[in-house]
Amino acid sequence: MNKYKIILLSIVYLFLTNYTYSQDSIITKIEYFIDIDPGVDNGSLIFNGVPDDSISIQNFQVSILNLSSGIHNLYIRAKNATGTWSVISQRTFYIKPV
Q: What distances in angstroms separate CA 55 from CA 22, 49, 52, one per listed residue?
């Protein structure tokens, strides 16, 4: 059985900026995926709680069990109250065999 550890994973910041309070600024869902986009609304769920214009997600777990060693990409996107998805925020990370 192979064991892996993440060597580098930078912090991801996702900002949905809107200076006026409206349905466009209310975040209703945040999801992530690794390497391959499964399509909007089909990623792994990070947040699907009480809609708000400011959501703080300080920690979330990402499963790397099915990933090989090497370079991978983590993608995060958010949906607002009107159903519009944000642009995708991407960070690269490396999994090194132990």
A: 15, 10, 6
Per-residue confidence (pLDDT) for residue 38, from 0 to 100: 96
CA-nearest of 58, 56, 54, 57 to 26 is 54
Residues in the chain: 98
Distance CA 53, CA 67 (A): 34
Tokens of 36: 């391959």
d(CA 70, CA 62): 16
Q: Categorize the per-residue pLDDT at 23 as very low, low, confident or very high, splitting at 50, 70 and 90.
A: low
User: pTM for the whole thing?
Assistant: 0.72
